[in-house]
Design brief:
Layout (H helix, E strand, L loop, with lengths): L2 H4 L24 E8 L6 E7 L3 H6 L14 E6 L7 H4 L3 H4 L6 H11 L4 E5 L3 E3 L3 E3 L5 E2 L5 E2 L9 H15 L20 E7 L3 H16 L4 H5 L1 E7 L14 H9 L3 E6 L1 H4 L5 H16 L3 E6 L8 H10 L1
Parallel strand pairs: 3-4, 3-9, 9-10, 10-11, 11-12
Antiparallel strand pairs: 1-2, 2-4, 5-6, 7-8
Helix pairs in contact: 7-9
Length: about 325
């Protein structure tokens, strides 16, 4: 990530100006970039994109997002992106990234805004991009340079759930959103009507997996339980990473905790990930994930998209639109 980007102001000035490539009329006044937002620790920071609900949905409500007494929604969607995906300005100057500009973080934010009307959309930018390609979420989960994770149990002072809560608390405050989450270390309650939907795509699913491993500890921690209980839905979109295993959670105790939490689980995949003969374990792990959650009585929906088409990276990205 460039020094220029890291030193820019907290607002994404110029992003929504007329003529900005590929960004339409939905963008002005609603899409904002927050730079170096701290999470559970002041030294652990991520850039965030925040897309506010359109005035139409914010003021008049929607069928999918709860609204508070002043007409504003306190329903939030958080997205964790995959490899190659980055800010539009960064992707445009990279040979590999330029081919996939339609899947930039800004474009995904707008896509999710249409998919979840009335919700505030947060796109969490990975803390590093090795070789400008490989997303690493080491603020959420330990891993190597290429972003292959090393999952661990819940910690009361670090980890994926703690970091996400800190990011949202500081991000809501910096974006001047109404009814923000209390700061880390403050009150354990969540604001009225607060709800959270988590979406991971490809490499971004490593964050969701880490949260599953942390779930038992977080639900037992009175400081974190209200935040965890606000999670209504989790979407896995074609999870994948460069490690040789652990693409999907297969640990039965961890999945039992997920099933008992009451969270609605959604698994959307394409043949690009689950039918790659060179990475056959991905398909096996996905099948175990689904089978185990069904046996445990989880609230689960699952689908293979583009099942009758040859596996392709184009369809891998398209699951973001189709889920």
């Amino acid at each position: 990530m460039s020094t220029a980007v890291a030193q820019s102001s907290c607002d994404l000035t110029g992003l929504c100006q007329p003529g900005a490539p590929g960004l339409g009329s939905e963008c002005p006044q609603r899409l904002q970039r927050l730079v170096a937002v701290p999470g559970c620790n002041p030294s652990l920071v991520n850039d965030l994109l925040v897309l506010r609900p359109s005035e139409q949905h914010c003021c008049h409500g929607s069928t999918t997002a709860l609204t508070s007494l002043d007409g504003s929604s306190n329903a939030h969607v958080v997205f964790f992106h995959g490899d190659i995906q980055n800010l539009q300005e960064e992707m445009a100057v990279q040979p590999e990234g330029a081919k996939w500009l339609s899947w930039s973080l800004e474009q995904v934010a707008l896509t999710l805004g249409r998919r979840f009307p009335g919700f505030t959309v947060w796109v969490v930018r990975a803390s590093s991009m090795y070789l400008h390609m490989f997303s690493s979420y080491h603020n959420f989960v330990e891993g190597n340079l290429f972003g292959a994770p090393e999952h661990g149990p819940y910690s009361p002072d670090s980890g994926a759930i703690q970091h996400l809560r800190g990011l949202l608390s500081h991000g809501m405050e910096r974006a001047s959103l109404p009814d923000p989450l209390p700061p880390p270390g403050g009150a354990s309650t969540v604001p009225p009507g607060f709800s959270l939907t988590l979406v991971g795509f490809s490499k971004g699913c490593v964050v969701l997996n880490q949260m599953v491993y942390e779930l038992a500890g977080a639900r037992a921690d009175p400081r974190m339980a209200p935040f965890v209980e606000s999670i209504s839905d989790i979407y896995w979109l074609d999870g994948g990473h460069p490690g040789g295993s652990g693409t999907w959670v297969t640990d039965k105790p961890a999945l039992r905790e997920l099933a008992s939490s009451g969270v609605s689980v959604h698994a959307h995949v394409t043949p690009y990930e689950v039918r790659d003969p060179m990475r056959a374990w991905v398909g096996r792990e996905h099948a175990t994930f689904v089978k185990t959650l069904v046996e445990l009585g989880a609230r689960l929906t699952h689908k293979i998209h583009f099942e009758d088409e040859p596996p392709s990276i184009e369809n891998h990205f398209r699951v973001i639109q189709e889920f």
